[in-house]
Design brief:
The complex is a heterodimer. Chain A is an alpha+beta fold. Helices cover about 35% and strands about 20% of the residues of chain A. Chain A has twelve helices and ten strands. The longest helix of chain A is centred in the first third of the chain and has 28 residues, at about 55-85. The two termini of chain A are about 65 Å apart. Chain B has five domains: about 1-95, Phenylalanyl-tRNA Synthetase, Chain B, domain 1; about 115-305, Phenylalanyl-tRNA Synthetase, Chain B, domain 3 (3-Layer(bba) Sandwich), CATH 3.50.40; about 315-365 and about 370-390, Phenylalanyl-tRNA Synthetase, Chain B, domain 1, CATH 3.30.56.10; about 405-605, BirA Bifunctional Protein, domain 2 (2-Layer Sandwich), CATH 3.30.930; about 620-710, Ferrodoxin-fold anticodon-binding domain (Alpha-Beta Plaits). Chain B has a seven-stranded mixed sheet with strand order 18-21-22-28-27-26-25, with helices on both faces. Classes of the chains: A alpha+beta, B alpha+beta.
Chain lengths: ~350, ~700
């Protein structure tokens, strides 16, 4: 198509041509078409101006120059745009390994603890921590285990050679003399300073003077749970723990409550779940019983309420203690509790971030 | 407790369905569900029948026998016996107990054949003591009796000793037999040990007695440690002609203390310290005398001498029917409650005109675990079955209380550090003394365990680092080169008690081996960079000052400070671990290990609670690069301080982008290149303004540090 010859037509045609430019080559063609010295539209326009009336020539010349500048500017802008969006030459081997930013893992016992906390947190439980170095009163005596109580043998205790400053709380007169054997002392510490209703869980490490083996570690992690209010029943204990265990393990597991003995609960129960290894059909892990012991629990003993000044006629409640290590072993099929304290990265790195 | 099923069947009727014996596994399951866990049912060869049994043969032909291996919880010493378990079984099946046959004393002879005295001051340690004589002919036990002991894991010795053990297993009451001829006369004295008194116990060990220990003595010396073990001097032997049978009730705490003190735990002490039946002694003696007579081992002589100065009043507990449902969450039929308690040996009497019913329940003396209403409710619940209780969910009556700030803090620490490539370790709270001292030099301040498992756990950790470094070394010795670990946990000392801390340890490559470029070894600045990020995560700024610590390399140790708002605190230390320390812990190889330990009490998530956002900058910034030559020991932080003070508010950042020592730089000097960024919140700064501030900075650096502009 021959270039148009009047100014407005040239401008319109140029705008249309510019829209079509997608490469440097296009750009040169369009430049030649409009600004070329011989065949360019503007050159033609200039020549045609020779035939115009003399009086019109200055105005025409001015307009033609303005158009020329507009075209030059527009072409220069387009060139920049083309350069900026030019694609790089050559490719890379996209299958080579990328640069990884290292990331670490939370400890599996932390992961389990956080899962437990989140299930109970959603049920309205406050999450607490207590001291690991405890006094005899909070660890034993207030839990209905006076000195010389045979049940103390169930929990072989580490003692300090002399008392350490205690964790406070009331009564604060008790010197801290031992490593807590369970998290149950937190029941006492909390009830001493709070009135019912009580809904707490207290995770933390505890210590027992057990020689380490596949299932024993002298230090392990426990979670204590305590709920106290008017009208709390053992049926509530069953309902809450079944809800928790099915949320934690699997909605299909079966839960069994069996009478047991703890000095600080009455009635007391041990809780079993259907074996996660054989689905309750019987295997070496569950010793062919189909059941795995998972936690201990019971209704808070009235002597415990009396120790903290609650009226056992008015309030009832329940408590449980869950071994985090034990459920971690069961849930993740770890076969030796000691592995949790080796901190071997080959184990830790199997767990999620 | 191992219970032979055939023995059990003597004392309680087991249901026999369609001519076949009760399924033992079913029985085991029922006991387990009532709180007596049957760990195993062992098939057991049927022994010779007990000719003294009143039970008669079971269904014509003797069924195969079995041993139930029962776990008895510490609150139920009454079930450390065939009788106790029989009582539970009778309650399960609704069948009656058969008490074993007892010896009836000849009423004609009422003279005490022996003198028994309990010191008045010691009646609390021994509220009851019964003794009786039997003329014996010592020899082996009949086979049926010995076989029963063997099934219970008790070694048969001779007919006399075996009968005392048999009675203990059957009725639950421990007994002892003395050789009368080897006592200093027909006299038993129950008293505390004398100062310096010793006794050789049946196990042949000479034991030192103490004045708080109760002994059974003759007129001259101690012949038994009460409730724990008899003495060798009056032991029954093949020449024994007459025995003194002892059945007593000893104070549980006293027996427990004595047993612990002399380091002896026996079948007898196990039962006494849990609580024996104060009403059982005379019955136990009568049973033993009956057995001795029946098996032809002896002839009872004279009556039982029973010293029982103050029998305790029976315990009566009120049981309100509505309270059972109140605690269990389900009403249990009153027609179930009373018969169940009765079969268990309680005596429930309905209080007149009570609706819902209230019982006054007399507790049998063998149920030492029952003293309150809840204890009786447990009895009812146990036999009704926990599986029959409904499952309900307790509605909250108040909004949940928020958890303590420690939780958000620890969570954020874990989040930030895992994001920096650190994995979480959990190590023991107790460690060896030596590494504890290397980090916490004040030995007096270290908390020591009185009874550690071993020297590896002798003290409570004053620092998390020894454990964490051990974990690092554990990995290092298993082909792992690049290791980054952290731990959040408690540390302990006498001065501060138990406090939360955070420790980090890293070694190996900071930049991993990759096809695109060279790897780089970790150095101190990798770890300080992590600490900067950690502090930023808590809304603070980390700064570092040269520091010292015994376990860190001098000159490569920094004190970590945290500035939040206008407050600055000392957070902890960071540095290169002393290779001597690492080597002593078992690290091989020459890679440097960098560690830090921080006081977690100082990190709080509250910094963002009052955050007020500042406007995003609206005007461009201007940068100026300076290269200065300074003394190479001058800390960079001093240079920064000078720059900041001289530059005023327009300076928004300082970045050291090059550090050079070598050709063209004077000996002992270093060239430091710094990029300064300036910006004003309300306008675009002019070149002139920025130049003027930069000139001030250069002059201040020259003045304070003799810095030369390059």
């Amino acid at each position: 198509m021959p270039p148009p010859t009047d100014i407005d037509a040239i401008r319109t045609a140029f705008q249309a041509d510019l829209e079509e430019v997608v490469s440097d080559q296009n750009l040169q063609t369009v430049r030649d078409r409009y600004l070329g010295r011989k065949q360019g539209a503007l050159a033609a326009l200039m020549q045609s101006m020779a035939g115009a009336p003399p009086a019109d020539r200055p105005a025409l010349g001015k307009a033609a120059n303005a158009l020329k500048r507009t075209i030059e500017q527009a072409l220069a802008n387009r060139r920049k745009t083309l350069q900026a969006s030019a694609r790089p030459a050559g490719g890379v081997d996209v299958t080579l390994p990328g640069r990884e930013t290292p990331f670490g893992r939370r400890h599996p016992l932390t992961l389990i603890r956080e899962q437990v906390e989140s299930i109970f947190g959603a049920m309205g439980f406050e999450i607490l921590q207590g001291p690991q170095v405890e006094d005899d009163y909070h660890n034993f005596e207030a839990l209905n285990m006076p000195p010389d109580h045979p049940a103390r043998d169930m929990q072989d205790t580490f003692y300090l050679d002399r008392p350490m400053p205690g964790a406070g709380g009331t009564p604060s007169t008790h010197p801290a003399t031992l490593l807590r054997t369970h998290t149950s002392g937190m029941q006492i510490r909390y009830m001493e300073t709070h009135q019912p209703p009580v809904r707490i869980i207290a995770p933390g490490v505890v210590y027992r003077r057990d020689t380490p083996d596949l299932t024993h570690s002298p230090m392990f992690v426990q979670v204590e749970g305590l709920l106290v209010d008017e009208g709390i029943t053992m049926a509530d204990l069953k309902g809450t723990l079944i809800t928790f265990l099915q949320a934690f393990f699997d909605a299909d597991i079966r839960v069994m409550f069996r009478p047991s003995f703890f000095p600080y609960t009455e009635p007391s129960a041990e809780v079993f779940i259907s074996c996660v290894f054989c689905d309750g059909t019987g295997c070496p892990v569950c010793k062919k019983t189909g059941w795995l012991e998972i936690l201990g629990c019971g209704m808070v003993h009235p002597a415990v309420f009396e120790a903290v000044g609650y009226d056992p006629e008015r309030y009832t409640g329940w408590a449980f203690g869950l071994g985090i290590d034990r459920v971690a072993l069961l849930k993740h099929r770890v076969d030796d509790i000691r592995l949790f304290y080796d901190n071997d990265l080959r184990l830790l790195e199997q767990f999620p971030h | 407790m191992r219970i032979l099923v055939s023995w059990l069947r003597e004392l309680v009727t087991l249901p026999v369905g369609a001519g076949s014996p009760v399924n033992i596994d079913e029985l085991a399951g029922l006991l387990t569900m009532r709180g007596f866990e049957v760990g195993a049912v062992e098939p057991w060869p049927a022994g010779p029948a007990n000719p003294t049994s009143q039970a008669g043969p079971a269904g014509g032909n003797e069924p195969p026998d079995a041993v139930l291996d029962l776990e008895i919880t510490t609150n139920r010493p009454d079930c450390l016996s065939v009788l106790g378990i029989a009582r539970e079984v009778g309650t399960v099946y609704g069948t009656d107990l058969r008490m074993p046959e007892l010896w009836s004393d000849d009423d004609d002879d009422q003279r005490d054949p022996i003198a028994v005295t309990i010191d008045d001051a010691d009646v609390d340690l021994c509220p009851r003591y019964a003794g009786a004589l039997v003329d014996v002919e010592v020899g082996p036990s009949p086979r049926w009796l010995a076989a029963r002991l063997e099934a219970a894991d008790v070694r048969p010795i001779n007919n006399v000793v075996d009968v005392t053990n048999y009675v203990m297993l059957e009725l639950g009451h421990p007994m002892h037999a003395f050789d009368l001829d080897r006592l200093a006369g027909p006299e038993i004295r129950v008293r505390r040990a004398r100062a310096g008194e010793t006794i050789r116990t049946l196990d042949g060990v000479q034991r030192q007695l103490e004045s708080e220990m109760l002994v059974i003595a003759d007129a001259e010396r101690a012949q038994a440690v009460a409730g724990v073990m008899g003495g060798a001097d009056s032991e029954v032997s093949s020449t024994t002609r007459t025995i003194v049978l002892e059945a007593a009730y000893f104070n549980p705490i006293a027996v427990r203390r004595t047993g612990k003190r002399i380091g002896l735990a026996t079948d007898a002490s196990y039962r006494f310290e849990r609580g024996a039946d104060v009403e059982a002694p005379v019955r136990a003696i009568a049973r033993a005398r009956q057995l001795l007579a029946t098996i032809g081992a002896g002839q009872p002589r004279g009556p039982v001498v029973d010293r029982y100065p103050t029998p305790p009043a029976p315990i009566v507990v009120r049981l309100r029917h509505h309270r059972i449902g109140h605690l269990l969450g389900q009403t249990i039929d009153a027609a179930f409650v009373a018969p169940t308690l009765t079969r268990l040996g309680f005596d429930p009497q309905l209080e007149p005109a009570t609706d819902p019913p209230v019982w006054r329940v007399t507790v049998p003396t063998f149920r030492v675990d029952v003293s309150r209403e809840e204890d009786l409710i447990e009895e009812v619940a146990r036999h009704h079955g926990y599986d029959t209780l409904p499952t309900t969910y307790p509605a909250p009556t108040e909004p949940a209380r928020p958890s303590g700030p420690w939780r958000a803090r620890d969570h954020l620490v874990r989040q930030l550090l895992t994001g920096c490539g650190f994995s979480e370790a959990i190590t023991y709270g107790f460690i060896e003394r030596e590494p504890a001292l290397a980090i916490h030099a004040n030995a007096e301040d270290i908390v020591t365990l009185r009874n550690p498992l071993s020297e590896k756990g002798a003290v409570l950790r004053p620092s998390l680092l020894p454990g964490l470094v051990d974990s690092l070394i554990h990995n290092r010795r298993r082909e792992r080169q690049d290791i980054r670990l952290f731990e959040v946990g408690s540390r302990f000392c006498h001065r501060d008690g138990e406090t939360p801390a955070l420790a980090l340890a890293m070694t190996g490559d900071a930049v991993a081996c990759h096809w695109s470029g060279p790897e780089r070894k970790t150095d101190l600045f990798d770890l300080t960079g992590v600490l900067v990020r950690l502090c930023e995560g808590f809304g603070g700024v980390a700064t570092f000052e040269p520091g010292t610590a015994g376990h860190l390399v001098p000159g490569r140790t920094a004190c970590v400070r945290l500035r939040v708002a206008d407050a600055t605190t000392v957070l902890g230390t960071v540095g290169q671990l002393d290779p001597g320390f690492a080597h002593a812990r078992g690290l091989t190889g020459s890679d440097a290990v960098y560690v830090a330990e921080l006081d977690l009490r100082l990190l709080t998530t509250g910094a963002f609670d009052h955050l007020r956002a500042t406007p995003v900058p609206r005007y461009p910034s201007i940068t100026r690069d300076l290269s200065i030559e300074i003394d190479d020991v001058l800390p960079a932080v001093r240079v920064r301080d000078t720059i900041r003070a001289a530059a005023g508010p327009a300076l928004v950042s300082i970045k050291e982008f090059d550090r050079y020592v070598g050709a063209g730089i004077a000996e002992g000097a270093v060239s430091l290149s710094i990029r300064l960024t300036f910006r004003a919140p309300d306008r675009t700064l002019t070149d002139t303004e920025v130049q003027s501030v930069t000139d001030d900075v250069v002059r201040a650096l020259a003045r304070n540090h003799q810095a030369k502009l390059r």
